[in-house]
Amino acid sequence: MPLFSASDITKSFAGVQALRGVSFELRQGEVHALIGENGAGKSTLIKIMTGALTPDSGTLKLNGHVLTHHSPAHARALGIAVVYQQPALFPHLTVAENIALSLEAGGMWRRVDWKSRAARAIELLERAGSAIGPGRLVATLSMPEQQIVEIAKAIGADAKVLILDEPTASLTGHEVESLFRVIAALRSHGVGIVYISHRLEEISAIADRVTVLRDGQTIDTRLVNEVDRAELIRLMVGREVSAIFPKRKVPLGDVVLETRALRSRAAGIRDVSLTVRSGEILGLAGLVGSGRTELAETLFGLTPADGGEILLRGKVVRIHSPSHAIGLGMGYVPEDRRQHGVVLEMPIAANASLACLPAVSRYGMIDAARERGLARGCVEQLRIKTGSIYAETGSLSGGNQQKVALARWLAIHPTVLILDEPTQGVDVGSKSEIHGLMIDLAEQGVAIMMISSELPEILGMSDRIAVMHAGTVAGVLSRQEATQHAIMHLALGGTDA
């Protein structure tokens, strides 16, 4: 009998099917790897396992008992713990206080035994393979140290099921070895561990079985010693490019944007050398944490570069802020449109003009007629479905919000446009329209850098594809060379030899 099982789990969000009959089981003392592309459904599944989400249908069982009215508190009480890639700790409390918050019971007015609390924290941290001081503020800890504190909390809670979500994303080789020793100790005590990682070499080293998700479905479960890297990649990416990518051949012009050994310690990117030509769509592929978004933020001046060069039309520039980047003719549509791409409470007209206020102003005041003309032109060009240019942007569908985010940058007539996940979360019709707009812009000579986690989108829309891994470019593929397998090979740390 499995320790934990999820059977025929389905889950939809606003009509989008995130999980379709997914089944997964975990045995006592087993490390079971869960892998898949970005968007395959891994995060949704673990949120259901931990009670953060309720499935539309399907059954969860722990030791053969069906879990009903499942919630995060219920999961913790049953011994189901999760350590996310971004730990959820209180930065202004100490390590001992953070551990105590999740483990200590009692009322508000009880007396705290500080000595006992510190001793308990030391014991749990030692079991997690660390000598972090219990009195240190969490704000002073590195990301790997914060992950260790989360693991110590799980050990203290006597977790029966431990879910590790990309646990080695920010760890050094020595720290990974320490984590593996902790995992080995936990499994020897019968803890079942769900191990989520894009690093296939780790899976072969630590896991007993591996389950592959793709497009919200369980593709296969295999013994790790019976499947090789090439087969895992094939299982992860077995999709064909669909007809929603209206790619047309566009004559390419001169190099517009170039980076030479670009580095940023703050962004975690190193020695990035790339070129993007006029009329070209350069796809930027890679897994979560590979440095794609961080590179975009460095190019746009959100994170400072501290080495290498950025050239625009052959001239070296030092981009120190987004306003400077805009002045140089660069636009950037970020991944999270609701938080950074548009201001939901503002009307369409105001959002469309945000990046070009001087063009719609007179004597320091917004000229309503100019703003109105700009907004109407954008609505018409992008086919934004709205009853009025003064409608709140938050009232639009996801696809139309994304078009408003694009409209802001089209208004500045950019020479370089960086698009981070341009069609994430939009319907097929809007996706096709956005792809068509990208081709139109390329035909007008705009140099486009498109970041996408969807391999069909990368393959369908790109003239060339740069694949990032661990903060640098692992390889660049021509449209003719690019395949899903070749991209995943580079994204997982392979070479382009």
Please give a handful of descriptors for the protein shown:
Rossmann fold; 497 residues; alpha/beta; 3 domains; six-stranded mixed β-sheet; 22 strands
Q: Mind explaining what this structure looks like?
A:
By secondary structure, this protein is α/β, with parallel strands linked by helices. The protein folds into three domains: 4-237, P-loop containing nucleotide triphosphate hydrolases (Rossmann fold); 242-329 and 414-497, Rossmann fold (3-Layer(aba) Sandwich), CATH 3.40.50.300; 344-412, no CATH class. It has helices spanning 42-49, 72-78, 95-103, 114-127, 143-156, 173-188, 200-206, 229-237, 292-299, 322-327, 337-341, 348-353, 368-382, 398-410, 428-443, 455-461, 484-491, and strands at 4-13, 16-26, 31-35, 57-62, 65-66, 80-83, 161-165, 192-196, 209-214, 217-223, 255-264, 269-277, 281-285, 307-312, 315-317, 330-333, 361-362, 365-366, 416-420, 447-451, 464-469, 472-478. The strands form five sheets. The chain has a six-stranded mixed β-sheet, with helices on both faces. The relative contact order is 0.11.
